């Protein structure tokens, strides 16, 4: 391993200009890759599309949901003749706009039952409304103040084309003579998704700039004892560009969680840069620059690499999560920390050669020297009384483990996005009026879902559900409701009658509820409620389906966002602990393979405690688990491993110089205490940029991560001395016992 780093050092010293050109070329390629980065929102970030549920959801989305926009007409009387005439006048031209495949509104139904015309008086409107199925009427006119019209976009549109279609619709609406008192807004999943992607892009830029500014401040305040104190910030910026390039060129999409990986990467990347820069400064004070560079690479390179790989073990554990955005966060974090490590390893020595780096002067600043002495005194006091300290540490951790199950799990996507986002405000307005705009779709499939028996069952089952769950469901619509409406308010009695009625229903309407004769969807509209209550409702609906099943040969499956987010609770709860346990196992195996020493497992002990402390902090602060904070345990393992490993490595080095364990602990903390604090605070402030995000899910994650970093520093400085002292005492007792057995054998 050392020879590999030695050869790298020789290459940097002998060919600095060549390596500089290579790095410039890589950065240019990365800039091209950055233009290929795409944002990802929607159900695919929460559910693996290759899973069974993901396949069902994908099929439902492609066939029944597609890209649907909702035109929201708001006024005092949305069914007045004037408003209905206006809606009818705009829906036809909208359907002819580019990228629009179809439209549906209340006027389509009214014209069908009123001989193709819009009523000209309120009395006529009232009479026509009696001929329309109440479910259909409520679908398009959910309240006395709102009317909804659906605009379906062509499948497979790019984001640019979707945006163009939405702008065309809004421009057309603005060009019409809107009746006084009528307000029109564009909403729906497609509009929500587009604006969310835009907000994510803005948030990412804000987070990265904030993290870099905080790094400059930290370097200016805490890293003044070295030359070119802002060099680590430049290194992280280069690492960031290279990481963006890798992400773009490999086609990794950026979700809310993946965006959060960049400040995390900056926080960890600055740490690696500080470690190399500090060692270079130390070596350059007593050695010629080439020797200082070689010593830095060969001595610090392996140590920081081991810490970096241990961090990656925590991120690697995220791959067992069934939630794609958590997997994406882990993947981008691994790519980022590896790129930042390699950038620090190569570019810092390279820049030092190119600028002929000179050390600032002998020794550290008075501040850092004072910090080192204070920390060493604390470490000695703890090392002399390890048992009481560890009892307190694990008492708090045990309380945290007990409290962990009481922390709520939040999977409400609307709560994750900026509260002032226009699309969210509009969506919330609709939700307050009519309940959730996101239905609970029940997809039924079989040999012939349009048999008379099947259509009758659809109507009977929707009526049953509305009766059984009247406080949770406010409406239900299926093709059966349109059949009744288009058959003068009655259900056909023969298959021929049914087929005739089906032929009269507009194709755009049938597309919303039918896929040939083999599939149909029943849409249940739910009142506003928390996700756990929705989960209970889903279980009850499955129970009702078992008690009142569809005709033989037909099966039903609940899907859509309703299924995604109700199932997400169980996915998060089940995978949260599994990720944490796997993180512990991976780090323990890694440390055992690298160090092959009983002390190698010492970093695991404070990490276990830190995970428990995190739960206490979350409980006291009232924070919930969500798709991001669910991976806090495994991420904490990765972050905390670095600091505890650095303390352990320095302790092992000092232990070789003295037999006195207290002296070894004192010297190890005195020599690297301030360096760990500087690195820790740099990481702390890098992570704290997440708090500035306009996305609540990201800002809450930022708060939990900086708490985890703070606890990690306590674990390294305060808990590690206690563990190392206790292990040494146990090892000495075991050896003493072995000596007694060997030298004083017992003879019966």
Automatic annotation (TrEMBL):
Q: Which residues form the SSD domain?
A: 234-354, 587-726
Q: Name one GO cellular component term.
A: plasma membrane
InterPro entries, per database record = MMPL_dom, Mycobact_MmpL, SSD
Q: Which domain of life is it from?
A: Archaea
Q: Where are the transmembrane segments?
A: 21-39, 204-223, 230-248, 254-274, 303-323, 329-357, 378-401, 578-595, 600-621, 627-648, 675-695, 701-727
Q: How does it sit in the membrane?
A: Multi-pass membrane protein
UniProt-annotated location(s): Cell membrane
In Pfam terms, one family for this protein is MMPL
Q: Does the keyword Acetylation apply?
A: no
The record's keywords, sorted A to Z, are: Cell membrane, Membrane, Transmembrane, Transmembrane helix
What protein am I looking at?
A: Hydrogenase expression protein HypA
Q: Which organism is it from?
A: Methanospirillum lacunae
